[in-house]
Design a protein that fits this description.
Length: about 230
């Protein structure tokens, strides 16, 4: 069985003043909200049961999404008395997840062209305990980078170097058996995945070429809407 889990409880401080009125997942993106796009991608992947973790202005998310029937999915909600972290929130999963089941976890402010059905099919074939979806990004430094030894003697100068880095998208797939290893206290997803790997679990990284945007800033929203208006996503 496949389940979806959307983290939608953030306060969206970088998107103020918009988030004084709306929670970040409900901010419009094209003709629908961000979270509605996520739900549509889940539906297209064949997910029928989805949990949404609520926090800041969560009642508005619930009012818009309801039971999920208009998106052809069953939606249930979780609420935290105290913040439990991006992995700890999964301990409140409202569905009975078996060891062989999988849970697709995504932040509620994510825009991506990733084929979720293909991702889940891949994960079920590799036999891992968990997977994190990654993208490559080139980071450029617009200055000369100086390398010196401990005595201050010049060793080399690299003019405007760039490095290729592997970045986490915040899209993760977790097996049911891995969920059993969630600690009782607050834990974020990077820490949980590292603990899982340290304890002998298999955590794999899948690098994808697909579009991925974290819509946490006003300029990110503007860029995403521009892509949508031009029909590029």
């Amino acid at each position: 069985m496949r389940y979806g889990f959307i983290l939608a409880g953030g306060t969206g401080t970088r998107l103020r003043p918009y988030t004084f009125i709306l929670p970040k997942p409900l901010i419009p993106l094209g003709g629908e909200s961000i979270i509605e796009r996520v739900l549509r991608s889940f539906r297209d992947a064949g997910l029928e049961q989805v949990a949404i973790s609520l926090g800041y202005l969560g009642h508005l998310v619930e009012a818009v999404i309801g039971d999920g029937s208009k998106y052809a999915v069953q939606v249930r909600y979780t609420r935290e008395d105290e913040p439990m972290g991006t992995a700890g929130a999964l301990s409140l999963m409202p569905f009975d997840v078996a060891d062989d089941d999988v849970v697709l976890v995504i932040n509620g402010d994510t825009l991506t062209s990733l084929d979720m059905r293909e991702l889940l099919h891949w994960f079920e074939g590799v036999g891992a305990d968990a997977a994190m979806v990654c993208v490559e990004r080139e980071v450029k430094i617009d200055y000369g980078v100086v390398i010196a030894d401990e005595d201050g003697n010049l060793l080399s100068i690299h003019e405007k170097p760039s490095t290729l880095n592997l970045l986490s998208t915040g899209i993760n797939v977790i097996s049911g058996r891995a969920l059993r290893k969630l600690p009782p206290n607050r834990v974020d997803m990077p820490d949980f995945l590292m603990r899982l790997a340290a304890d002998g679990g298999r955590v794999v990284c899948k690098t994808v070429p697909d579009l991925w945007m974290d819509l946490g800033r006003v300029e990110d929203l503007a860029a995403a809407n521009d892509l949508i208006e031009r029909g590029l996503i």
